Fold this sequence. Notes:
- The chain is an alpha/beta fold.
- The chain has two domains: 3-48; 58-248, TIM Barrel, CATH 3.20.20.
- Helix content is 50%, strand content 13%.
- The protein has helices at 3-25, 29-48, 81-90, 101-106, 108-116, 137-155, 171-180, 199-209, 223-238, and strands at residues 58-59, 68-74, 95-99, 120-123, 161-162, 183-185, 189-190, 215-219, 242-243.
- The strands form two sheets. Strands 2, 3, 4, 7, 8 and 9 form a six-stranded parallel beta sheet that branches. The protein has a three-stranded parallel beta sheet with strand order 1-6-5, with no helix packed on it.
- Strand 7, helix 8 and strand 8 (215-219) form a beta-alpha-beta unit.
- Helix 8 packs across helix 9.
- The radius of gyration is 21 Å and the shape is elongated.
- The mean pLDDT is 95.
- Zinc ion (ZN) binds next to loops.
- Zinc ion (ZN) is lined by residues 74-75, 124, 128, 165.
Amino acid sequence: MSKHQWSNIVFGLLSIIFGFFYVYYDWSVGIWLILFACWFSLIIYGSFHIRSNFHLTSQSNFKTNGQVVALTFDDGPTEFTPAVLDLLKQYGAKATFFCVGKQIESFPEIFKCILEDGHQIGNHTYTHDKNMGFKSTKELVDEIQKTNDLIYQFSGRRTNLFRPPFGVTNPNFRRAVQKTNMKVMGWSIRSLDTVLRDDNKILGRILSKLEPGAIVLLHDSSQRTVDVLARLLATMEDNNIRSIQLDNA
Ligand SMILES: [Zn+2]
C-alpha cells in the first residue's frame, strides 16, 4: 500500500473520530478543517516530490562502494544531444537518457547514436505534456507504451526504466506504472539546468551534493547544460569520480 493510501485511511479514521466528538461534545468544524488542510497539503507535497515515495516507489540513488555516480539526461533527443554525447565520450563516461517519444520520432538518428555510444535509455512519456498530472491512467499507459514501442522500433531493445515528467506523481501514475511494469527512477540531485540561468549556480548545486551513488538530473536540451556538463565532467575526472548508467548502478 502506498503512503498516499495510508494517509487516506488515517484521514478517514480521524474524520470518524472527529464526527463522534462533533456530535456528542460539540467540537468545532474548524478542527476538522485543520485536519483536512494537513491531509491535503501532504498530498500536494507528495505529488510534487518524487523522492518522498508518497504515491509510488522510486529509486533516487544507488548503493556503491566506488567513486561512482549516475548522470541522467531528460527530454531528448534534441539537437544538443550530440554535443552531450561527444563530451561523455571524451571523458569515458556512461549515462542514462530518459527520452521523450515525440523527440525520438523527430531525431531518430541522434537517438540511435545514444545507443551506439553504449548509454542506457529510459522512458520519459510520449508527449511530455505540461498537463501530464491530469491525465487518466489509460492515457498514461498509452504515453508509456507508445514510447516503449518507439524505443524498441528504433533500437531493438526494451527498457523498463521510467521517469515521470517534472517528477510529478499521483495515483494514476502509480496504476500506469504497475500496468506497464516500469521501474520509476527519480534523482538525488536536481541540477535545475532548465530553470537557473547561471552556469556557476547549476554546477555549484550539483557539486555540493555529489557523493557516491548520486543520481544527477540534467537535460540534453540546451547549450547551457552542455557548457555545465563540460565543467562537471572535468571536475569529476580531477576527483576520480566516474559516471555509470543506471542499469549498472
Ligand atoms: Zn522532462
